[in-house]
Amino acid sequence: MKTTWEHLDKTPLTLKGPKFTVAPKRARDDHLMDIFIQHDFDVETLRILNECRLHLHATTVAVIIEADGSAITQDAWEGKRTQRYSHNWPC
């Protein structure tokens, strides 16, 4: 979220409302959009990545990787939303 706010601060846009964050599900878990922004993707790539993330209902890395953290799940890679992702979105 910090990175999101830093980038937002450079624009004329503002966000209002209560602060809402989704707690990571595992130790050393990170929010996907924060990771994407840290990698300096261009705006169009960020838009596409966010669409994929929203489709999968994935907020953090833990939601789309194997339990041992070794790889992205095949379902996530293929864009298949599974029961694993079907929680009370976005919580």
| Helix-strand topology string | HHHH
Number of strands: 0
Sheet with the most strands, sense and barrel status: none
Structural class: mainly alpha
CA radius of gyration is: 14 Å
Give the count of helical stretches: 4
Uncertain segments of ≥5 residues (pLDDT<50)? none
**Total of domains:** 1
Q: DSSP strand (E) fraction?
A: under 5%
The helicity comes to: 25-40%
Mean pLDDT: 82
Explain what the structure shows.
There is one protein chain. This protein has 91 residues and is mainly α. It has one domain. The protein is built from four helices and no strands. The protein has helices at residues 2-8, 32-38, 43-56, 74-77. The longest helix has 14 residues, at 43-56.
Summarize it.
The chain has helices at 2-8, 32-38, 43-56, 74-77. The chain has 91 residues and is mostly helical. The model has no long low-confidence stretch (mean pLDDT 82).
SSE order and pairing:
Blueprint: H1 2-8, H2 32-38, H3 43-56, H4 74-77
Helix pairs in contact: 2-3
Structural descriptors:
91 residues, mainly alpha, globular
